[in-house]
Amino acid sequence: MYIQNRRESAKSNDSSPHQLLYSLKGNHSEIAYFAYTRTLWGIVTLVKISNMKKIFFEYYPCTKDKEEEIWSNGIFSFDTNVLLNLYRYSDNTRNDFISVLNSIKARLIITHQVGFEYHKNRLSTIQSQTKAYDGIISFLKKKCNEIEGELNKYKKHSYIESSKILNKIQRAFNTTESDLKILKDTHPNLISNDIIRDSLVDIFEGCVYEESSDEDLKKIYQIGKMRYSKEIPPGYKDYDEKKNDPDNSLYGDLIIWKELISYSKKNQRNIVFVTDDLKEDWWYKFQGKTIGPRPELLKEFYNETKHQILIYSADKFLSLANHYISTSVDNKSVDEIKEIRNKDESILNSQALNKEEWFKVIKEINKNREIYNRYYKDLEKTNTMNNSIFDLYKKFNVDNNADYMKMSDFLKSLGKFDIENKINNQDKSEQHAP
User: Fold this and answer.
1) Is the pLDDT of residue 10 over 60?
2) DSSP characters for 132-197?
3) What is the DSSP string of 271-302?
4) Tell me, what's the pLDDT at 235?
5) DSSP secondary structure string, 316-348?
6) Section 261-290 average pLDDT
7) Nearest-10 Cα torsion for 159, 163, 166, 171
8) How open is the CA angle 350-294-203, to the nearest 5 degrees?
9) 164-177 as b/e, with b when 16 or more CB fall inside 10 Å?
10) Which of 173, 174, 281, 397 is deepest in the core (most CB within 10 A)?
11) How far apart are CA 151 and CA 145, in angstroms?
């Protein structure tokens, strides 16, 4: 490393605050500028003047050269959801993904938390795949009955032959149901013979990072409470869903994050981390578009380790693997994984929007509490929606039971009477009362 003297273009004189400008260089790349600054009292101090991209690197895409360097000698690690999503892929796509994992086997690790979460959730993931057949069949039967009910309204129509239409539809439904049952019967029984787990066990042999100590976990839980309250990534978006879970589940993402940092610090290595978590506590989003990983994560990782982390979705990782490690991944595999991610993201966005709307409703209820209290007895009589409201309450994780009651009362009132008219009528009757 050396210092190169660079005189400013302006003439050096006592009135100029920066008399000399130095450039500190290392590894053939400029790191920072230093300037001698003369104060009003004549004291000379050294001031560091850095490049904007270097100070705020977390907001800029990684350069191609740096990305290639990290892919060449960095360590690859995968989130729990990536491993579990292997159960959702077609055989060809799964084989392509496992082939890439095998090609980088010497540079793989999974954190202890990921290993724990994978084994904890493996069976429920397998079951959800097998239950899907029955779910679709049940859905189709329900829709077929609904169509039959609608068509029966036109039995006496002079031109519409509703019975013929219904027969065609029923034949289509029956064929589809039969195909689904065949698929269900041929679906591999992964609970008793899990070939996917067998492949992962072989790939990650000797690659599981050490478990965090009880003392370290306690620190993570304490820090997690503060981070979640201030919405510091990662993991805080899991709070609503997991707030009643044990700490190792509630702070699972944070444990994974801290274990990645720990590995990088101890082994002095850059990390490539692949996750299918789509929430904004991992990704920087603007107007519905994902820009990249959360800048705070990139900065925290570098500050803690002095190394870099690249964060990719599974489809992006698979796509880049063809370029950087000379694999032969079929583009159809990349497209399939991307399609699954897009569907998951669409569901996530829909749920987030709905939840937002529910809280608007609750806010409105708080504004008009007197109205609802005034007619509470009437609301009590209209209890037909209780079950569906409770389902919504669970789905959107309303903060407490009081909010649930408010939401329930509000929706029941909408279904039975117009509150505004009732208030007006009540006020009128009170005015005319003797």
Assistant:
1) no
2) HHHHHHHHHHHHHHHHHHHHGGGTT-SS--HHHHHHHHHHHHHHHHHHHHHHHHHS--TTTS-HHH
3) EEEE----STTTEEEETTEEEEE-HHHHHHHH
4) 95
5) HHHHHHHHHS-----HHHHHHHHHHHHHHHHHH
6) 94
7) -130
8) 90
9) eebeeeeeebeeeb
10) 281
11) 10
The burial of 192, by beta-carbon neighbours within 10 Å (0-12 exposed, 13-18 middle, 19 or more buried), is given as: exposed
Q: Is 359 exposed, middle or buried (0-12, 13-18, 19+ CB in 10 A)?
A: middle
Question: What's the whole-model pTM score?
Answer: 0.69
Q: How confident is the model at residue 416 (pLDDT cuts 50, 70, 90)?
A: very low
Radius of gyration of the chain (CA): 30
Query: Can you list the pairs that 195-198 forms with residues at least 24 positions away whose Cβ atoms lie under 8 Å?
Result: 196/86, 196/87, 196/94, 197/122
What pLDDT is attached to residue 359?
58
The answer to whether residues 238 and 252 touch, using CB atoms and an 8 Å cutoff, is yes
Burial of 65 (0-12, 13-18, 19+ CB in 10 A): exposed
Long-range Cβ contacts of 232-240 (<8 Å, 24+ apart): 232/296, 233/281, 233/282, 233/294, 233/296, 233/297, 234/277, 234/281, 234/282, 234/294, 234/297, 235/281, 236/281, 237/279, 237/280, 237/281, 238/279, 238/281, 240/397
257 within 8 A of 292, measured Cβ to Cβ: no
**Predicted confidence band at 380 (pLDDT cuts at 50, 70, 90)?**
very low
> How is residue 13 annotated by DSSP?
-
How many whole angstroms separate alpha carbon 22 and alpha carbon 34? 5
163's tokens: 């019975």
Q: Assign 354 a pLDDT band (cuts: 50, 70, 90).
A: low
CA 325 vs CA 70, 273, 322: distances in Å: 11, 16, 6
Whole-angstrom Cα distance, residue 150 to residue 152? 5
Identify the CA nearest to 347 among candidates 398, 279, 415.
279
How would you class 20 by CB atoms within 10 Å of its CB: exposed for 0-12, middle for 13-18, buried for 19 or more? middle
> Tokens at residue 432, please?
């005319």
DSSP 62: P
Predicted pLDDT at 179: 87
- Residue 395, pLDDT above cutoff 50: no
What angle is formed at CA 421 by the lines to CA 380 and CA 412, rounded to 5 degrees? 30
